């Protein structure tokens, strides 16, 4: 059993209630990237069944034996040459961020007859080193995913600049989602997940606060 898991669960429920939302309105995505199994085991044994990973290959190595027991989300950048493996292995891809990737994912969905749930990543801080469509591109990109590529988009994801107040970024993501008819918002990490919940997050991606420093 994991003390940290219980603590994070309580904090998520409290933040949801404080925001006038049901205690179970927010899903915890446990970010297990780069963690040794002895850090992950207590969280898995505590009943956590939704995990986030940054890399396709690392995720396969870690989770293949337990794959049927968990929901797995790709939260790191996806190269088109890994799209086949990602569609085959992940339940959710949160980092759809360019037309070339949309096209390749659409082809893989056809070929494999299975469709991961998809989130569009928005680079709300317009940081050059960070993935994601810019806020001004977002509406057209979502429309292209749906219309040109026939992809069903479930929600939006963002990673605000580390040095910024995250609130304007979370609000911007919520606005883009609302005007595009998207109900799901993946936002908030170890240091700001309660703030993200106050801004409408439906899932939070928590790594170090659950498993310890990487
Ligand atoms: C690593 C990572 C997280 C988890 O970060 P923590 O600060 O350890 O909670 C969340 N989201 C993404 C996209 C990440 O790469």
TrEMBL record:
At the top level of its lineage, which domain of life is listed? Answer: Bacteria
Q: Which cofactor does it need?
A: pyridoxal 5'-phosphate
Q: Where is the Alanine racemase N-terminal domain?
A: 5-213
Q: Which organism is it from?
A: Caulobacter zeae
Under the GO molecular function aspect, what terms does this record hold? pyridoxal phosphate binding
Output the SUPFAM superfamilies linked to this UniProt entry. Answer: PLP-binding barrel
Q: Which keywords does UniProt give here?
A: Pyridoxal phosphate
- Family, per the entry? Belongs to the pyridoxal phosphate-binding protein YggS/PROSC family.
Q: Is Cytoplasm given among the entry's keywords?
A: no
Name assigned to this protein: Pyridoxal phosphate homeostasis protein
Q: Does the keyword Transferase apply?
A: no
């Amino acid at each position: 059993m994991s003390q940290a898991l219980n603590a994070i669960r309580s904090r998520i429920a409290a933040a949801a209630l404080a925001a006038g939302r049901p205690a179970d309105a927010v899903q915890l995505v446990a970010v297990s990237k780069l963690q040794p199994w002895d850090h992950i085991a207590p969280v898995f044994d505590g009943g956590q069944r939704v995990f986030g990973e940054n890399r396709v290959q690392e995720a396969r190595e870690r989770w293949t034996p337990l794959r049927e027991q968990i929901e797995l989300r790709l939260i790191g950048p996806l190269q088109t040459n890994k799209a086949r493996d990602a569609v085959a292995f992940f339940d959710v891809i949160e980092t759809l961020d360019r037309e070339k990737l949309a096209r390749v994912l659409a082809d893989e969905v056809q070929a494999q007859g299975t469709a991961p749930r998809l989130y569009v990543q928005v680079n709300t801080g317009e940081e050059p080193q960070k993935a994601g469509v810019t806020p001004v591109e977002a509406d057209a990109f979502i429309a292209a995913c749906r219309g040109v590529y026939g992809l069903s988009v479930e929600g939006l994801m963002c990673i605000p600049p580390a040095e910024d107040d995250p609130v304007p970024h979370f609000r911007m993501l919520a606005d883009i989602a609302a005007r595009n008819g998207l109900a799901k918002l993946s936002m908030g990490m170890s240091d700001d997940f309660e703030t993200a919940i106050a801004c409408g997050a439906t899932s939070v991606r928590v790594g170090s606060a659950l498993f310890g420093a990487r």
